[in-house]
Each structure stands twice: as C-alpha cells, then as structure tokens.
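Example 3.2
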Amino acid sequence: MSADQHARSGQTQGKTPPEGPLRERDAELDAADHAVSRLCHKFAAGGTEIGEVLLFSGPGGMGKTSLLDQVRRLAGLRPRCTVLFARGGERQRNEPFHVLRQLLQPVLGALSESERNEVFGSWYGIVGPAIGLVPPSDELEPLDPQGVRDGLDFVFTQLAPRLAPLVLVVDDLHWADQESLSWLAAFAVRSRELPVLLVLAYRDEFDYPALTFRQQIESIAKYRHELRRLTPDTVADLVRAELGRSADDAFCRQVWAVTGGIPFDIGALLREVRDQGLEPSEENARELHDLAAAARGETLQHWLDKLGPTTLHFAWACALLGTDIRQPLAATIAGQGPDQADDSVRKLRKQRVLTSQPNGRLEFVHPLIGTSIYLTMPAGTKTAMHGMAAAAIENAGGTLLAASRHLLEVHCEGDDSIVRKLRKAAQEHLAIGAPDAAKRCLERALKEPPDDDVKAEVIYELGCSALLTDPVATVNQLRLALEMDPGLREELRVDATFRLSEALARSGELTEAADVCQEEAERTAAGPGRLRLQAAHFMWAAFQRDEADGPARSQRLKELSESLTGRGSAELAVLAMRAWDLTLRGEPAVHALELADKALVAGRLPTDLGWTGTTWGFELPALIGLTLTYTDELARAEKLFSDAIMEFEVAGWSGAHRGFAYFLMGLVRFRRGFLLEAEDFLRRGLRISERIAPDLPLQWDIVGVLADTLLARGRVDEAWELAEQYRFAPPYHATAMVLPDAPTLYGKLLLARGRRAEAVDELTRVGEQLDGRGWHNTVWASWAGHLAVAVAPDDPDGARKYAETAVDRAREFGTPSAVGAALRLQAAVHEGPRAIELLEEAVAVLGQSPAGHEHAHALVDLGAALRRSGRLTDAEEYLYQAIELAQSCGADGLLARARHELDLSNSRPNRLRTLSKDALSPAEWDVAQLAVQGLPPQRISDRLKVPPSLVHRRLAAVHRKAGTGPEGLAAALGLPEQAPEASDEQTAATEGEAADREG
C-alpha cells in the first residue's frame, strides 16, 4: 500500500472521532468546516499554494479535544482528503520529535523504496533517525538541529502534494516537545505555500522557551478562536439531558457555578451525580461543590475508591507513558501479568479513564484525566516507577532515546550505570539533532553525581553538546571542565581547549580564542596535541581584526612551518596556516601555493582536514580554499567549496557551516566574474545568517562581498542600501576580521557614492592598520589603488605614489589578477599615452587570469582611453571585447558604459553573445595547447598566423573559462605539462592540427 493510500484508508493516528453535537461551538465548527471546504475546493481547482492556519485556544477542559475530533471527522468525510493527527504529551515534552513522529511516522514508514527515494531525496540519513524510521548512525556524530529542520521541510514539501488536500491536526500544542514545536512554528509560516490546513489547539500554558514559537504561530494564523465557557442556559440543557427534564433551575444554576461553565468539568460532575443517584433538586444543590472536586479526580482517595489499588497502579503506569500507551509495557511497569492487565484495562474503560485506538494502543479519554492520575502518585512511587519504565523500555528492545525521559525522573543515588546510560542517551540525542535533550541528560547525570574521575568528562560532553546551538554555554562548561581537579586526560584537554576556542571564535572573540590555545600549548607536552593547539592559535590570530605583533607572529609561524615535513594533520594544518599568512602578506604567490598543495592530496582535502571533521572545524579547510582564491587558482578553490556545500548537506549542517560555504562559493564566483551566480550564493548565505543571529562575523563577510558584487554589476544604490540595512560601516566587528577587508570595501562604497573625502579618511586608516600588520595583499585589500583614485583630484602626485605602491606590491605577489587590477587603478590617476600604456599592460596581464569582471573593466577603461585619444578603430576592438565579457559576467553597469563609449565613437554596438564557460572553441583550444607548451603570445601568433591581439583575446577566454592562470592551465584542461620549448615534431604536429581546423 502506498503512503497516500495508507493515509487515506481511514482516520490515521488517534482514536476514532465520535459523532455528536458540541454545545456553543457552532462558530468554531463552521470556521473549521469552511476552512476544510476552501482547501478541498481550491485544490480541486488546481490550487497548490492554498494553505491556512486555524487555531483554537482556551483553558483545560473547554472542549478543544472534542472540537478537534469533529474537525477530523469533517475532513475525513471529504473525498481524498488526508488527515494526520498528533497530540502533545505532558509527560513527553522531554522526548525529542515526539509530536512529529506521531504525525509523520505512519505515512513515511508506509512508503515503498521508490517513493522513499523521491520523498526523502538525500535527506533520509538526517530525517529518518529523527522521525524514528531508523536508529541513529553507529558513529553517533552530532547533527545540526537546523539541518534536521531543513530536512523535515524538504520531506514534508515532497510529501504534502502526494497527500493533498491535507489537514494536519495537533492537539495540546502547549505540551509539544521543543523540537517538534520549533519545526511547526516555522512550518506555519510556510504552510500557505502548500495545499495544507494546519489546525492547532492549545492552552495558555507554554513553557518560557516555547512562548516565542507560540507568538510566531499566532502571528501567522488567519483564523483564531478562543473557546468560551458555556452559558447557564446551555448548562441547564446539559443537566436536563443527562439527569431528566425535572432538574430544578437552582440545581442547574449551581452546576454552572461550581464548574465555571467548563464542559469537561460539567460532564464529569453530571456523571458523578448520576453514579451517586443524587436527585437534581434545589435541596441537593449544596452537595455539588464537593462532588465537583471529587469528579475532577484531584485526590488519591478519589481514584482509590473509583478504581481500587491494583487498577490504579496500572493507571499510574499508563500516566507515566503519556500518549503512547502499550498495554504490555504498562503491565511490566505495573508488575502485572497479562490477565491482570486485561482486567485493569476493562475497569479503566468502564470508568471512562482509558479508550482504545485503532492501532491497538491505549489512550486517556481526556488529557486532564491522565494529568489527574499522575499527580496522585506518591513521590517515591513516581520515581521508582519511572526507573522501572526506563528498564522495561530497554528490556523490550527500546532505545535510550525513549528511556531517557524516565531516567531524568529517578532518584539521584550516585549510580554509575545511570550516569553511563544518560551519557549514551545524550550521544543518541545529538545524533538525531536534539542538543537540548542531550543537555538535559548530561545535566541530570551531573546531579547523580558521577564519580570524580569522570565528572570532568561529563562536563566536557555537556559543553560540546551546545557547540552548534549555544556558544556561551559551551564556553562556560568547557572552562569548568578544564579547571577541574581531577581533570581531563591529556587528549581530552587538547580537544576541550580547541572546542573552547571554536566557540569563542564563532562568537567573535578571536583574541581570546587565540590566547587560550597558546596558553594550553605552553603547558602541553611536545607532540601532535601541542602542535594542534599551536596551529589553532595561529588560525584564530589570522582572523583577528587587530593584532599587536603581526610581523612577529608571522615570523614564529614561519619558523614552526620550516621545521615540519607535512606528516600528520597537525603539521598539514600549520603548513596551511603559513600558506594563508604568505597570501595576506603579499609575498610571492608561488610560495603560498606550494604550501597549500602540501596540505592537499591530489587536489582534495585529506580526511583529517575535512569540512565536517571535528578535529579542526571548517575554518582550516576554508583558509586553504581562500589561499587558492586569492592566488588565482579559482577553479581549484571552487571545487573545494563545492565539496564543502555537499558535505554539509549530507551531514545535515544547515547553520553557520553551510552559510559560510555559500559565502565562500559566492566569493570565488565573484572573483571569476560570474556575478549573477555570486549574488545567488551570497543571498542564500545571508538568509542563513539572518536566522542564526545578527551581527555575526559570517553576516559581515557576506554583506561585504555582496555589496562588492552589486557594485561590480553597476547597482551602486542597491549596494549602499544593503550596507546601511546591515550596518556595514565603522566600527565593524569588534574583534573579527572580515573577508575581504571590510574598511577597504566600505571605502569603495563611499567612493562609488561620490563621498570622496570620507573615502580618503577610511582608506587611509585601513592602509596604516594593514601596513602595521605587514599585510600587503592588493587583492584581499585593494586600499592603495582606490585611495589613489580618491585623492587624485586634490593631490595628483600623492595619488600616483599610492598607485605605484599598489602596483609594486601586486608585482611582488605575482598573480595576473593582482597585477592587472593594480595597473588599471594606476591608469586611472594618469592621462594620455601613459594611461593607455598602463591599461594595455593591464588588459594583457588580466587576459592570463580567470578574473573575468576585472578583465572586462580594464577593457572598457582601455577602450574609453583610446576613444578619447582619437584611436577609434583600436577602441572599437577593445570595447567589443568588453561588451561580450561584461554581458557574460552580468556586469550591467560596465555593459552600459561600453555601449555608451561605442556610441560616442559613432560605432554600432555588436550583437550580444552568450559566452560558454564550460567548453573552449576550436580556435581557443589551439591557443591553449600552445600556451601550455610555454610559448609566449607572440610565438603563438607566429605559429597560428593570427594577429597578436586575437591571441590575447583567445588566451583571455581560455583562462576565464578554465578558471585558472598560466600555472594551472595544463591541469585544468587535462593536458600534460611540457617544457617551454617544444620539439620540431611537436611543433609541426600542432601547426598541422591547427591548419586542419582553420581549413
């Protein structure tokens, strides 16, 4: 049976809803009926984005459960309408995903293999354990809670159209577990995008952490109904319907008075009156107060009188289990055999305490009854039975995930076995994306308490449990674990220190993160652990905005790296850090690339340095990728960042990790000149950063590059509005460095807005700061070139000095994109032939780089300069190239400017063509083969008998499409490296092939 057939084969979860009238609930029932009708009619008419949220609220006993039963019945009568139902449980609020398992497990578990593949996609390993379809993986690696929620979004988005029109009903939402509630709150916002009616009922009894989710749900609900108490006239009708038409008015009035018009209390009282055989007369009205108290079952004596001790013991076991009562399990907890349990169930049904569900489970007739029975349990009995429940669940083959909520309730007796179980349960909770549940288990384990020799380990585990969700808690717990005596064994001390530094760094406390690693390294014996901490110290220092001894730290890193051979992950990490340090310092890029290559295996990250590894975190592989990004190895960097996105998706990490991966991919696409794709990745990352927390370093990174991308596209006003929206302006982040340099980007924004004096001040300040650190990379922070442009109108000589400094530093670094961009800015502060000379060199150099947008910018500048000098034919050639390249980049501002320059020269802009970045044309391939052999452009021009300018154009296209400069061209195209001078036979063969293609 398929999932939709399974769901439509009758009412799904829960007891069969009874039929019958509800008093004074006509408005609510009409609203529900109309909502179901709208859903079904709109879906039948082809609608898909037709979802609504319907809320019912009120105190306990107001009839919400009966009302939802009627809603389910109404929906179930509609052809092909699917109803999914779940109920929050007062005892199961600490059981992660309890409500969602009730909703989704029956339909998802009924999927065939092919249906499962379609519905889950790649999310089965993430969502399956959370829903309870499969156990957590053996490795018990923590899952990002946001990743689990994203996976649930995907699965439900695939499932809902299969079951549509779908009515999703949740009762007692105030008792929903935190994991389910957070997803339902987010889903309520998205429900309008699907053919789903979400019907929720709750009391005003949410725990403090859940209030935000309640407010979120209420803010989105179009229809909200608060159930009112019944009027005296309606209560009188109910009394007479139950006890006879002769009931006195005074008696009826007193029923209303003692029950407050609450339907549940009225029904319970009337049953008590009937059982007592009390005449509904005025003289008996005074007895109703005591009978009402007894009817609510508020005392132990009431339930003993009603059920007897044996049956009450079974009822207590059921109350412990909550909404998922299996008779054999309840019998085990109560210590009853099958026959005795059957007898208990019969009595409880007769007394309207329990009812049966279609799936064979038992359920309390009303949640208030279960609460009443649970509250009558003596404290000692309660904790003892919780312990028996945990043991019974384990003995029946259940997991610690299910048993742990009972372990939380047992007496603290210093039991080592309880501590072990709670620690294992915490691991299982983390492995399904429920860190809050893990935290509860570990906090309870500390209360047991654990033995002194493991107490520090439990605190360490408690700190690690919050690493993805609560960095502040992680910092506090890990500090405590490190300070304890007896403390952690050495390998755990190293790991605890590193994780502490991670939490500090991701909270923006970069200086403190670097310091704690350095301090612990000094007291750690020589070996891999110490080296790991030293590498972490250098890593966090490199991310700092300010640093007192930048050059000295760089020297220490150099000395450390020179003593290593690259064996083991710690040594590779140090080499990677040195590569990034060289990149920031602007030293020859070839040296940085050499070290970065040592940290890779066949161009890929080694397992120990993987994106999802816990030894190093994602920051270290990010620095390797950034080194490649700023040394023109953009295709290789893009491959690393693509791997990051894939690994984070597979691991279910949808928070800061994936947001940072989107940022990195957006950055490398920006550097390649694929501006539309860069903007898409950056906006995806920005959405993730917004749901984490404001003003995180991640958000600053994304906003800075996104603003730069918008500038490159010619959307200056939009870039400025973005910066203002996210406060991307001084003083920036207090401690964290922004990638790329934030003050430089802000100076560019000011310059683009015409606020030249402010740009000069900002760029001057950042230049002094970066020079003090010895960071001279002109790609990561192009402050000198832009400062030259900013001061040129007032100080031409000073502008030329700044521009010359930028070019000198770019030549020292040695990458084509660095040199070309610096030359283009230098040309902006010169005029006439000198400007043209500089731009011609910039265009030629950028033609060997993968930086498409920067090349297009230089082409436009050169074409404009040639046009102003009267060299119209030459100008046209470069402007035509600029138009083609700018259009492929999505640089609308450059495109408009190039077309305007052509118009000024009375030339007609040629037809725009789409540039393929995935394949080379035959002519481009000929040029690429000769370039790989080491032939310079002039020799290629001679061999192929084409003009040098055409060779430069084709070489530029080759580098842009391959995503690399000359050094990486052979590998990118799959060609063998050859000596600079090819043999005569090779030359003849190449020329012959080229002649054949030309022919």
